[in-house]
From TrEMBL:
Gene3D superfamilies: Dihydrodipicolinate Reductase, domain 2, NAD(P)-binding Rossmann-like Domain. Residues 134-244 form the GFO/IDH/MocA-like oxidoreductase domain. Pfam families: GFO_IDH_MocA (PF01408), GFO_IDH_MocA_C3 (PF22725). It comes from Streptomyces aidingensis. This is Predicted dehydrogenase. It comes from the Bacteria. One of its GO terms (molecular function) is nucleotide binding. Residues 2-111 form the Gfo/Idh/MocA-like oxidoreductase N-terminal domain.
Amino acid sequence: MIRVAVVGTGGIAGICHLPALAAEAGRAEVVAAVDVDADRLAAFCAEHSIPAAHTDLAEMLDAVRPDLVHICTPPFLHAEQVVTCLRAGAWVWCEKPLCLSLAEYDAIAAAEGPDGEGPYASVVFQHRFGSGARHLRELTGKQTLGRPLVALCNTTWYRPPEYFDVPWRGRWDTEGGGPAMGHGIHQMDLMLSVLGDWEEVRAMAGRLDRDVETEDVSMALVRFTGGAMGSVVNSLLSPREESYLRFDYSDATVELRHLYGYSNADWSCDSPHWQPGEDLPSSHAAQLTALLDAHQRGERPPVSGTEARRTLELVTGLYASALTGRPVRRADLTPDHPFYARMNGGLSL
């Protein structure tokens, strides 16, 4: 039995993580929870029948020795908490963003165990794991739909002004960015999982309406190593909300329209080869299944290592381009780059 601890007992833990863990009750059990709010922690543990409650992460790791820790805390806490768990020998599954810079990402990677042994850190990018995305990656790999040429990746959501009353939201040092970092990153990760490595990004970002430090809208053009080109829109100002991806191949077009998660019915394609099979919605549960499979095999889990870093690199490149007004190549993002340690490179919009 895989022994699991949950760190952070807010909405995402109860709404997404605990139901996913309940579906895996045959091989995973929640043995502890951690939160600095003792009252909320007690209520969470009582609701979900969790035996051990701790207000200190290090204390929990020492007392419980979990195999896997789910990190469900605000973004600015992630890097330190992930490293602490890894050094204690626990695997980690962390809500996005895994951390607030490439420098923090590399510190997390350095704290992982060796390949084939672990422990490892994986980030929640659940949209990769629905049956539609898996089918599209298979068709793309076999070139069944022809060569990928054009992609559209739009996350047009709406967050009212009071959404940003939470102190850590909308700030570079606590959230790491605006909709590109905290919202559209999901769709961008799905796009990258289909089209692979990117080479160059040209972007703009603006603070158009919300009282925040970060952007509330960004737009980007991306060139991929395989030759395809894509456009990206991330917005928190769009009253008619939608998550939309379009992939144009030389022989077919594939589209996905959803909001926070999809099923097979949300995909469309004009090719007879589009047959995604059994309907597996994108969800925390779908990704957790893959993570636990990897844990039981002792293998690096999906959406970790260089694979997850690639997505953070694209967000970093987007901000670097938007804030400097210059195109950014992926190869430019070395440790001496101004945006390696801070997503805004020390600049302001």
